Amino acid sequence: MLINHRPQLILDVASGTGDLAIAALKLNPLKVYGVDISEDMLKIGREKLRKKKLQDKIDLLEADSEKLIFEDNKFDAVTVGFGVRNFENLEKGLAEMLRVLKPSGKVVILEFSKPKSAIIRSLYSFYSSKICPWLGNMISKDPVAYTYLNKSVEAFPEGENFATILKRTGYKEVGIRPLTFGVATIYTGTK
Q1: Three-class SS of residue 108?
Q2: Which run of H or of E encompasses 64?
């Protein structure tokens, strides 16, 4: 998605522990910035960067997606992996990402979606509403730790609905690419 674009400055929003920011290094940028509202997640990510000796290539910073701490037109690319469905105000967060993108910059968003195939959809629904919360409870000992996932995916305006929001926010050349039988989707757009 971004290989031909050759981004030099990349922003990863809702970066968590920095996994997508680390993966972005395959594009050979000068610098990757990851932002997240959870300082606890960022601490884990910073330790991961320290162990991998990547602190000079990636900065993980505490910031809200709706109030990004960067100037206008700074980044060649903005990425989000499984984070936009958790934005408090979806359009405000998307507008902030657009603001910090350079003209012709590209956004790449990976998000869960609802499979179109009835068989896959029913298997996925069973897994995300029954198995995932049960496993989450077993691992974390918190009975509600993973119950939000299914609810947040169900509430997210995926597919053409999300593409319409991207266009309304100001993104151009909006693309939709379903993955893994429609369980996830990559959305792209340019400034």
Answers
A1: strand
A2: none
pLDDT digits (tens, 9 = 90+) for 132-159: 666 666 666 666 656 656 666 677 898 9
Q: Residue 158 in 3-state DSSP?
A: coil
Q: What is the pLDDT of residues 61-95, one digit of tens each?
A: 999 999 999 999 999 999 999 999 989 999 999 99
Is the same domain home to 34 and 49?
yes
Total domains in the fold of the chain: 2
pTM of the model: 0.89
Long-range contacts of 146-154 (CB under 8 A, 24+ apart): 149/112, 150/125, 152/85, 152/86, 152/112, 153/85, 153/112, 153/113, 153/114, 153/128, 154/114
Cα dihedral across residues 126, 130, 133, 134: positive or negative: negative
The parent domain of residue 24 ranges over: 9-113+156-190
Residue with tokens 């350079």: 102
- CATH number, position 186: 3.40.50.150
Pairwise CA distance, residues 11 & 80, whole Å: 9
